[in-house]
Amino acid sequence: MESAPQTELDWHSAKALLDWYVELGAVDAVGDTPVDRYALAPPTPKQAPAPKAAAQDLPKRATPKAPPAAPSIDYVALAKQAAAGAQDMDGLKAAIKAFDGCELKKGARNTVISDGNPAARVMIIGEAPGRDEDREGKPFVGRAGQLLDKMFGAIGMGRDVPLSKDAVYITNVMPWRPPQNRDPSPEEMAMMVPFLERHVQLVAPDLIVLMGNTPCQAVLGKRGITRLRGGWHEVWGKPILPMFHPAYLLRNPAAKREAWADLLNLQAKLKERE
User: Fold this and answer.
1) I need a labelling partner for 9 at 20 to 30 A (CA). Which of 35, 48, 139, 170 fits?
2) Residue 101 sits in which domain range?
3) What does the pLDDT average to over 23-33?
4) For residue 97, what is the domain's CATH number?
5) 127 vs 15, 137, 168, 169, 214, CA distance in Å?
6) pTM of whole model > 0.90?
């Protein structure tokens, strides 16, 4: 017996047939070919790894360039230029206060430049301001400064005497206080020596006294005050006498005998140059 020929259902007929199957309780569609759901899935074929590019074929990475180094500043040269431009003491004081090359300036309260009579015959150069000097803005005002006044008062001289021939003028190598009163570094002193030299030129004293090791190193290029004290030197066209710093004398009272001999030596030199 021949089967009836299959005809293609239209959409409405297919939908009606599907609804009839659902009413009969059919929930799964069955294909023509049986499915073994316990069989393992066939392995997925692995792709062959791509061949590695030869080293010469790889793109070269650009080597990052280091940032250019900041140009170094020659603060000694700047100090020389600023000092040379000072035509008088007011100009020199302004140049020192405007100089930003020395880090000590940032931690100081005041710029300590000088005290006494600028017309004095004797110029005293100390080391650097201490706590009292930094607070008051004048050199040698603490205990060491009080002893300094007594020392020169013993030979009839001082920063406040009325006559310039008996007056003294006082300054320091460094106008700013170093932290914890440490010694200034050679680099710090080198920046301030041009201002100190110009200071001497403007004041034009007859004699210079160097109080302690720091001014000896800055002006003479030497240290060893126990060996240098009492001997005359010449720098910047001026006779120079190294002496013990008053702070040293406060710690070593026995050295006051040598300090008295140096004061008499200074007094005799002044008389020679009258």
Assistant:
1) 35
2) 75-272
3) 64
4) 3.40.470.10
5) 111, 15, 16, 14, 5
6) no
